Amino acid sequence: MSNVHEQETLHIREQVELAPLTTIQIGGPARFFAAARSRPHLVALIDWARRHDHNFFILGGGSNLLFDDNGYDGLVIHMQLKGVTQQTTDRGKVRLRAAAGENWDAFVAHCVTQNLAGLTCLSGIPGCVGAAPIQNIGAYGQEVAQTLHQVEILDLDRNQTRILDNRECAFAYRDSIFKRALRNRAVVTAVSFDLTPNGRPTLAYPDLVKRLGADATLTQVRETVLAVRREKSMVADPADPNARSCGSFFTNPIISATAYAAFKTRCPQTHPAWPQDADRVKLSAAWLIERAGFHKGWVAGRAGLSEKHCLALINRNQAKASDVIALKKDIQRGVFETFGIELEPEPLLLSQGLN
Ligand SMILES: Cc1cc2nc3c(=O)[nH]c(=O)nc-3n(C[C@H](O)[C@H](O)[C@H](O)COP(=O)(O)OP(=O)(O)OC[C@H]3O[C@@H](n4cnc5c(N)ncnc54)[C@H](O)[C@@H]3O)c2cc1C
User: Fold this and answer.
1) Hey, whose CA ends up nearest to atom 19 of ligand 1?
2) Residue pLDDT, tens place only, 280-289
3) pTM above threshold 0.70
4) Residue nearest to atom 12 of ligand 1 (CA)
């Protein structure tokens, strides 16, 4: 079969703009692009890229990455595997298995409608189910690691399906094996969660506790989480310029007890800090950024900071990846000079020159 014919059969298009497929709306074209709608199609696309010596990249909802202005020189595979199945476990839980291309928030809404507890506080996070375990998404006192049962992957080394249980995923704060040992070596094809039928919602976050009584239902918690997120422009909304972002651009730094002692000498005033264990303390990246002088609504040419949330770097008006990266570097420099703390970006930055 000729390559042209093969590309047609696999529905591979050329020069497809990536910016509209991302929440920050930045990025040049993909040299090759295809939506994977079935597992055999996904496998065939990866095989095609390998045989033709092209890089390939798995794209979900585009809410946690920054493509390069020159686009992607390879095959972008848009994850579109769909389907949700349900079964009861012998421990009284309900196990939901969702394919990687399912929309995350629609999946959470489905769980809440069925009165299944375990994911409600993660309402409104943009993106797909398949990306949820990658950085162990979390918000308002909950993270997927708490209820995730298994992750089904396509193991790219062995070219076969593999199942990882929760423990094997090595989940930590915004971290997992998929960002480390399995980086670029696994495609998530489905994720399953064990949820509690008629369970109580998790109310661990002060803002939620303040707004809701102790006996709030899952539906009330979901609605409140969505309302709080909308107030902060932390839901995907193309009409809201403050939401034209990758969400939080930096993770909260976790530092050693020694580094924390040094930090306190530079910063004697009251500051948010959460002990992680005997040796480590988590600081608030938003607090550090604001106190280093980068306030909400900060303008840096075409890029800037959200008016609602100083952790969200936004595309104000036709920004390029290079504008966002210049602002990222300014903020990192400012925070380091003020507090001696290094901020790490949360989204994937897709260019050699971006880091
Ligand atoms: C407004 C806004 C608010 C946000 N709020 C939160 C929040 O509260 N908490 C939080 O944790 N995150 C938050 N995020 C970040 C983001 O939504 C999550 O990280 C989300 O899980 C990313 O999903 P995605 O499908 O968009 O992934 P993408 O951005 O498409 O991809 C991100 C990374 O995951 C990889 N990937 C995606 N799918 C797969 C797959 N099937 N197999 C292998 N690798 C894959 C990609 O290759 C890439 O490396 C927010 C983002 C935005 C824009």
Assistant:
1) 64
2) 999 999 999 9
3) yes
4) 137
